[in-house]
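Supplementary Note 3. Input sequence used for the single-chain structure prediction.
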Amino acid sequence: MNNQQWSSKLGFVLAAAGSAIGLGAIWKFPYMAGSNGGSIFLLFFIIFTVLIAGPILLAEFVVGRRGKKDAISTFQKLAPSTAWPFIGILGTFIAIIILSFYSVVGGWILSYLARSISGGLSGLTQAEYGALFETIISNPVEVLLAQFIFMIMTIIVVSGGIQNGIEKASTFMMPALLVIFVILAIRSLTLDGAAEGVAYLFVPDWSYFTPETMLLALGQSFFALSVGVSVMITYASYLNDQDNLGRSTLSVASLNIVISILASLVIFPAVFALGFEPGEGPGLVFVVLPAVFNELAFGGVFMFVFLILLLFATLTSAFSILEIVVASFSRGKDQKRTKYTWIAGALIFAVGIPSALSFGVLTDVTIMGYLIFDFADYFTASFGLPLGALLICLFIGFQLSKADVYEELEKGVGMRAKWMPVWYFAVKYLAPLAILFIFLQSFDIV
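The predicted structure, written as discrete structure tokens, is reproduced below.
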């Protein structure tokens, strides 16, 4: 059993929500929604989060608390002498790859934050903001130094353990994130012409009601809740038996949806009010937003606050991803936690170096036609996470007995009995079929 534990249910929920939110809600969701019809994408994202990704999140909670160990040891305990521990091994491997390029984006945020403090983000044209982004990501010294600093920040917090490190940081960061987002959303909504952005987000444009939009929204729901990479298995292993897993799942999924909507309310009203395009793609945060904030009164202050917010959200996700690797390395040896955290962090930084350099000195190096950074993102999002989520569904549905699963759900103030069969059906049948559709779409079979 793990000696590490959360000091409170709130601490667990905030840390789990911090893991799930991150760049997925703040960076990726707005540009995905902006490129795929806004309101229709949001509608399907909410539906799939509730019906598919949410149930898989609860499945990971069940497995994690049942095993009360790191992901690999959990599957060894629950299914000894089988191949099921491969799920934990896969999760650890995918976590290393995700954080290796995730830390690069964290470094970009630090670079922008430094320029925000020095005034380097003020008074540029939109074209100059685009050129600035290209300059930053192609500078090998800057990207590696920024990535290194980001990883050091992550390592220091995670080495402190659950209560003194991750929980304490998340308990501060998540409420601050919500408060700052509400303030920024209010400011954005008061701009002249903001109503068009609100309409884009909430008034359906049925021309985007296509299978492609549905599949993209389904994939975003997996990415946004961090399912399939054993993050939540590891976090749930630190829970006591009195915590209500169903309510924790509802809290995390709800916070994720709220932050995604708030991020869109910050971005889309301002984008429409100031004449930008919502379908700018991944550059929406790094290229368009500085230009948008430059048009506002006290825009430099708002940009600084937004970058702090984005850094907080990115760090909370990084904490959870590194925790998977540290837990797998240390296998419950808490006295060696600090050592294993630095080893894991150094390994991930080294693995991320090619991704950091892929927009500069390694720009001519491609894998399957992708830059190294883009391939790492594609591989994890299109293969690693869906495969991990599919295997967890199969493990719950066909390896663990239904009696054991229901027993875990009933502990403490348990889930209402009438919801258990509905959830079980969704995990055993509905979610696997949805994941198979993602795989088929990824390989252009459908």
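The longest strand covers residues 366-367. DSSP finds 17 helices and two strands in the chain.
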